[in-house]
Amino acid sequence: MPLRLQAITRDEHLAFVKALPSASHMQVPSWGDVKPDWRAESLGWFEGDGRPVGVGLVLMRPLPRLRRYLAYLPEGPVIDWYAPDLAERWLEPMLAYLKSRGAFSVKMGPPVVVRRWSADAVKAAIADPAARRLRDTQATERDDRASAVAEALLSTGWRQPEPGGEDGAHGFAAGQPRYVFQIPFAGRTLDDIHSGLNQQWRRNIKKADKAGVKVVQGGHDDLPAFHRLYVETAERDRFVPRPLSYFQRMWTALTAEDPDRMRLYLAHHEGEVLAAATMLTVGEHVWYSYGASTSRRREVQPSNAVQWRMMTDAHELGASVYDLRGITDTVDDSSHLLGLLRFKVGTGGEAVEYLGEWDFPLNRLLHKALKLYMSRR
Q1: Which of 22, 50, 169, 344 has minimal Cβ neighbours within 10 Å of its Cβ?
Q2: Could you cite one Gene Ontology molecular function of this protein (predicted)?
Q3: Dist. CA 248–CA 68, nearest whole Å
């Protein structure tokens, strides 16, 4: 029997997530408030006896001049992805409900891990002149259940969009990253985690401490200082920065839901903020969300100091994983993104490949028109 799906309140949604070890920060009710251009709705899956068994935050974006919507569940929904009747029992009720709400296409990001590469495996891939992409190298660990999920999606009409552009071809396609870098914390002491850092990381942390770099927690009033560094970082690393208002809205929305949902850290040295970063927490999963730094006085290693302070606090919060978010899939020396991968590999964690984002066209004509529009942006 298919599960019953219906709209639920924010409180019901949040209560379900709080009972779990973790869920994506993009699948909590407050994330809808971060995206004002989308209409947010909380969905709940229920057994016949009324017991809730899954939730999802769906963001609905209208087509210009039409009352039709793209429905997007980033890094979700929060359901039993390994259920043998995944498509029929879980996803078909969702598609039927969203179609009734005016959706012409549905996009979702199953939080399903496909493969993992240890730090040593990633370093070996970078050092191999024949290697071009991480996906083509030997993984340290593979979860065969991911193949069954992919087969279930393909057999019922779900499709993965083609990556576009140089960055898209290497794991930075539009939407959420398919490849991320994570540091396992579960069952490890802080000393274990510190010992897992490479020699350069440990040296830089020590250097920052000796130079007098002080990392402090900030608040809403410190977001402009963070944003100034973030804009400088965007210019240096060639990406389009988000406006200050985005981070102010994120802070207000997330901390209203949970005071520890979002934190801001700033590295001070001789009266100047040299680096800053935001940290997000849901249950036992902690994310390094946005980072920023100036090119001035880089020799005192403020970015390493900020990361180590966040790792320390994440461990104190009981995190089972510290997530450094997106990485490139390329291990080619010619890529300008390789430096970011090297920085994250130095933490001694692991590269993780997720199943990626999937689309279901409820109206093929409108879905095709959207794809054409996005390809020309």
Answers
A1: 50
A2: aminoacyltransferase activity
A3: 30
